[in-house]
């Protein structure tokens, strides 16, 4: 009988290693289950080990950390290699799929592995933990009844502006909140593009470092963001994970 693939949420950023440091983010049951596994699939083995070290503070691991198997799955992993990653599960071994940050398989290469697991009859169990996208929707004050995540927008300035205007038009027509993310060092350019590309009354939310001590969530019209940037009162979000949201009025 195949093992179970557990989808294990990770923190949304670095935490100080101390007893109970994960308790506000991951239920005790999730931490305990994670500590019981000895096979993981992760984007990066080094950061996965750092996460397991945090788990081990309150929940001893099933094996010494150096003996726990961590297979990597990232954007460079060929599709043909996915079946090999599932081989231990097909042999009856449970496994954990861990994201770099937040929940696996959402804005994350693990989605392909989850789909293949279903095709092979492997049970998939999502576990409770932080999702930056849902936290951003919750805190934004924008429409939480209808929203869409659009991943990364184009890096080319002209194409990015075109895409922003398309999303704004869709938002206005469907009353739908539009979410997207950016590589943290380009956050400033993204906000400037939003201010320039959106209508003055469009609501724009910038949600940074969610669930961390440095968390910041601000929602204003594009016109007010323009004034804030002109006054050098923009958000402190350079090189910090940020979710952008807009809702056209």
Describe the fold and architecture.
36% of the residues lie in helices and 20% in strands. It folds into two domains: 4-126, Cobalt-precorrin-4 Transmethylase, domain 1 (3-Layer(aba) Sandwich), CATH 3.40.1010; 132-247, Tetrapyrrole methylase, C-terminal domain (Methyltransferase, Cobalt-precorrin-4 Transmethylase, Domain 2, 2-Layer Sandwich), CATH 3.30.950. It has eight helices and ten strands. The longest helix is centred in the middle third of the chain and has 18 residues, at 157-174. The N and C termini lie far apart (53 Å). The chain has helices spanning 28-36, 45-58, 82-90, 110-119, 132-140, 157-174, 187-197, 222-230, and strands spanning 4-8, 39-42, 69-72, 95-98, 123-126, 147-152, 177-181, 203-208, 216-221, 242-247. With 249 residues, the protein is α/β, with parallel strands linked by helices. The strands form two sheets. A five-stranded parallel β-sheet has the order 3-2-4-1-5, with helices on both faces. Strands 6-7-10-8-9 form a five-stranded mixed β-sheet, sandwiched between helices. The radius of gyration is 20 Å and the shape is elongated.
Widest sheet: strand ordering: 3-2-4-1-5
Query: What is the number of beta strands?
Result: 10
CATH superfamily of the largest domain: Tetrapyrrole methylase, N-terminal domain
Proportion in helices:
25-40%
Largest sheet: 5 strands, parallel
Unreliable spans are none
How large is the radius of gyration?
20 Å
What number of domains?
Answer: 2
Strand and helix order = EHEHEHEHEHEHEHEEHE
Classify the secondary structure makeup into a structural class. alpha/beta
From the 3D structure, determine the CATH topology of the largest domain.
Cobalt-precorrin-4 Transmethylase, domain 1
* Strand residues, percent: 15-25%
CATH class of the largest domain: Alpha Beta
Choose one word for the global shape: elongated
